[in-house]
Write a structure and sequence with these properties.
119 residues; alpha/beta; Rossmann fold; two-stranded antiparallel sheet
Length: 119
């Protein structure tokens, strides 16, 4: 499964970094997204969701709601079927817009979903 990780980090202690590593371990293809970070380990980091060269199935967000305004249109236009709002990224207004657009929006932890087989 192709998964965009918005708010990617190259710091191993960050949850977005851990999610990228666990996505790979579980056989998924993560696409890190960060406006100024060039690489996460050996993965290219894309400056925006719209720069990912292949469709993504799921978007995992690690940005606070206050920092999501600039990415709303990209998310709605991405073709993703699901958006995961990780702890601290919950955004009821965006969740409602996604649901109205037919996109599953859940408040959950990507790491927990992966570790428990619910991803």
């Amino acid at each position: 499964m192709n998964v965009a990780v918005i708010g990617a980090s190259n710091k191993p202690e960050r949850y977005s970094y851990k999610a990228i590593a666990l996505l790979r371990e579980k056989g998924h293809k993560p696409y890190p997204v960060h406006p100024s970070l060039p690489m996460v380990e050996d993965l290219t980091v894309y400056p925006a969701l719209k720069n990912i060269p292949t469709p993504v199935d799921t978007i995992s967000i690690y940005l606070s709601a206050a920092n999501q305004t600039a990415i709303i249109d990209d998310i709605l236009e991405s073709g993703a079927r699901r958006v995961i709002f990780n702890p601290g990224a919950e955004n009821p207004e965006l969740s409602e817009r996604l649901k109205k657009a037919g996109i599953e929006a859940i408040n959950a932890c990507t790491l927990v979903l992966l570790k428990t087989g619910q991803f």
